[in-house]
# Entry
Amino acid sequence: MYTGESDYSIHYSPFRQDVRHVLSARLIWLLVVEATEKDVDGAMSRLRWNPQLGEWVIVSPMRNDGPFQERKDRCPFCPGGETEDDWDVLTLKDKFPVLSPESGVVPLNENVVMDAPGYGFCKIILLSKDHQEQVESMGDTQLERVFMEYLEVFKELDSAAGISYVVEFENRGAALGMNLEHPHAQAYALPFIPPRLARELEQSKNFWERDETCLVCKMLENELKSLESRIITETEHFVSLVPFSARLPYEVHIYPRDHVPSLLELEDRVLELGQIIRDTILRYSKVFDEVSYTMVLHTRPSFGEHPYWHFHVEFYPTRGSRVQMKHLAGLEIGTGIYTNDTIPEETARELREAV
Ligand SMILES: [Zn+2]
Ligand SMILES: [Zn+2]
Ligand SMILES: [Zn+2]
# Structure
C-alpha cells in the first residue's frame, strides 16, 4: 500500500512487486482491482488507467469543487486576504490539488502500472490584485505581465522531473460553477499526455508524416484565402477564427502565424498574444450577457521531439446556446459526438462585428 514516502512508489505490495513481471496483464488487473479500494480515501489522489479508453483518470476524492473556496464575505486574494499586498501577478500552489509532487516521480507504463500516486503539480495564477480586473479590462502593461507569467510558469513546470504535459487554462463564469471570481488561471503539470491532446498530436503527426507539412499551417493557409471567412481578427503574428468544424457554438481558436511549438518561442510576442486573447474575450462580452468560457493553451508535450506541433489557444464559451447546453451532456459524454447548433461562418461574422 502506498504510504506517502517521497520515493517513487508503484501501487503494489512488496509481494506484488516481486511477482508482477511474471504475471499476465489480466492477473495484474485483478490484483489491482482488489488492492485499490481502501487506498483512495487517504490524503493523496491516484491515477487509474482506463484500458477501455486507453486513458488515465485522476481519482481525487478529497477534492473540492474549485482551486480555492471563495468565502462570500471575503475574497482570499484581495489585499488583506491570504496573499501579500505587493504583487502584480502571483502564482500559488493550489490548496486542494488533484496532483501533488509529494509522491515523487511516477514512471507510468500502462501495460504494467494501472494505478499510481497522483504525481504532478497544480498551480493557480492570480492575474491581478484587483478583484474586478478581468483580462478584457486590462491595460497592455498588466496584460504583458499576465502572459509572461503564463510563460514563466510553463517554463518551470515543463522542465520538472517526470512531467509529460503542462496545461494552462482559465475557467471563468458562474455557468461553469466557478466559486472563485477573482481573476485567475490554472496550470497542471501531468505525468501523462491528456487524451484530448494525445488525439490532436496524433492527427498532426500523421499529417506531418504523410504530407510533409504542418496541419495547422495548412489549415491557416486555407482559412486566410477562404471566401466564406471564419476569421475574426488578424494581427501581425496571430489570427483568431471560428474553426470550420467547431464542436461548440462560438468556439474560437487563436493561431500564431509562425510554426512554433510552445509559448517559449513567443517570448517577444506575449503582449500581442495577450492582446488578441483580450480581443476575443471583449467580443464575447458584447455577444453574451455573461462572460463565461474555458480557455486552454495547447502546447507541445514536455519530452520528446514534436516538430509537427503548432502551438495554439482554444476558447470554449459556455453561454453560446441553450439548445446546445441541454443536449451536450448526453450525446457528448455517451458517444463523444458534438452537435453544434450554430453555423461557424455566422458566429464568426457575429464575433467579427461585435466591437
Ligand atoms: Zn478578490
Ligand atoms: Zn504549423
Ligand atoms: Zn488544439
Observations:
- The chain has eight helices and twelve strands.
- The chain has two domains: 14-190, 195-353.
